[in-house]
Design a protein that fits this description.
Radius of gyration: 21 Å
Number of strands: 5
Order of helices and strands: HEEHEEEH
Number of domains: 1
Strand order of the largest sheet: 2-1-3-4-5
Length: about 110
């Protein structure tokens, strides 16, 4: 597999395995032509600009929030997106109570 996609898949795997933590936000990961890995705050950066400014061969943005994880990658003319969404929250006690007490709404 292409090293660009292999790195993206690895970053996605780590990001999703850590998704249960409370940490949210955007992280940028830039892999330089020399193989050096730089991690920085991604806020305000486009991936193509990160590649130029950091002299990178590949750049990735990891976005985590309560809705899921998204990893975007860019390397020259290539790009990719890996994404997973968090399942909807289970019904609350109140909702369950309403659904199980439906017979009280049938009485006229």
């Amino acid at each position: 597999m292409d090293p660009f996609l292999t790195d993206a898949a690895g970053i996605f795997e780590v990001a999703t395995s850590a998704a249960s933590s409370e940490a949210t936000g955007d992280l940028a990961i830039v892999i330089g032509h020399d193989g050096v890995i730089r991690m920085l705050d991604a806020q305000g950066w486009r991936l193509d600009r990160l590649l130029t400014e950091q002299d990178g061969r590949a750049a990735y943005r990891v976005h985590r929030d309560r809705n899921g994880v998204r990893v975007e990658g860019c390397s020259g003319p290539h790009s990719c997106v890996f994404e997973t969404r968090t399942p909807a929250a289970p019904a609350t006690f109140f909702t369950k109570k309403l659904l199980t007490s439906a017979d009280m709404y049938r009485r006229a």
